Amino acid sequence: MRRFGWIVPAAVVFGLAEAFAFSPYENYLLSGKPTFAGLLARAKAGREVQLAEGLLKVCTDKENVRMLRAGISNPAAFRRSIQGETWFLVVFQYAGGKPYLTAAEAFESITPELKELIEPHPRAVRYGRYWLQAEWINYIRGLNMEGPASQVLSMVTTIRPEKEAEYRSLHQTVWPGVVDQMIRGNNRNFCIFLAEIGDTLYEFFYLEYMGTDFAKDDRMNQQDPVNQRWWAQTGPCQKPLPGEKEIWAPMIPIGGSAVQKEPQNG
Question: Which residue pairs from 213-218 have beta carbons closer than 8 angstroms and sit at least 24 positions apart in sequence?
């Protein structure tokens, strides 16, 4: 970019002098802003209840000093039977400035009692962990960042192998109208995480709803023409879980009940 006869890097112009990369993902990580981590593991056979109880304790102890020192805040946990085994997803905000890929290590450091309850994801073992830090491929912050969420939810689907590249490309260039409708619908901290289980690529989304009339906002989102055109692009890339009619299937919140809902950003 040329300004006043000088060539000025775009990163400097936009206030990212310390965060310059070709990848939007890496630019965000280098910005020092808070990130979100999605950790995935399955329970050992017969230990599902104990793992759920342990995660519930972590997620309800919001003022845990060790957790805050580790850079972890607002954890939420979900479970679902996938391929005949109970898998758990933990999502939390990770403090800006900390290396993003240390999120799993940080969580494990404050939950050593959970290790014996977990059968690690094969790739987590390769990295020396027992929780797999899933790929974080999409984030929409929203505007209303004050106070607790009215609802916190997660859902899961799969990505068709032949459509993976197309789906990833779409989420590198999410349409502005889709982001706008996410905000109008009173949503924040929308995240998409990807992780393979066996030969299947699974997609998990996490969302915090901040409004007071969930049904009304959901109808508005479903009727929005930009959302409808967006879903016409993303829907063919996805495949429902076996036995499910809808693309998205609910993850079961630890300590709560599932919320059946279509996503605002497929």
Answer: 214/150, 214/151, 214/261, 217/184, 217/185, 217/186, 218/185, 218/261, 218/262
Instruction: Supply the pTM of this predicted model.
Output: 0.89
3-state SS of the chain: helix, strand, coil percent to 5?
Answer: 35, 30, 35
Q: Rounded distance, CA 216 to CA 174, Å?
A: 24
Three-state secondary structure call for residue 242? coil
The tally of domains found in the chain comes to 1
Classify residue 6: in a domain, yes or no.
Answer: no
Q: Which residues contact 252 (CB under 8 A, 6 or more apart)?
A: 78, 79, 80, 258
Q: 73: domain CATH number?
A: 3.30.70.100
The answer to whether residue 20 is domain-embedded is no
Instruction: Tell me the per-residue pLDDT of 13-72, one tens digit each, with 9 for 90 and over.
Output: 445 456 678 888 998 998 888 899 999 999 999 999 999 999 999 999 877 888 989 999
Domain membership of residue 7 (yes or no) is no
Q: Is 22 a member of any domain?
A: no
> How many beta carbons lie within 10 A of that of residue 56, not counting itself?
15
> Are 202 and 129 spatial neighbours (Cβ–Cβ below 8 Å)?
no
- Cα–Cα distances in angstroms (integers) from residue 225 to residues 82, 133, 184, in the given order: 33, 34, 14
Q: Domain range holding 229?
A: 34-253
Contact 93, 106 (CB under 8 A): no
> How many other CB atoms sit within 10 Å of the CB of residue 5?
5
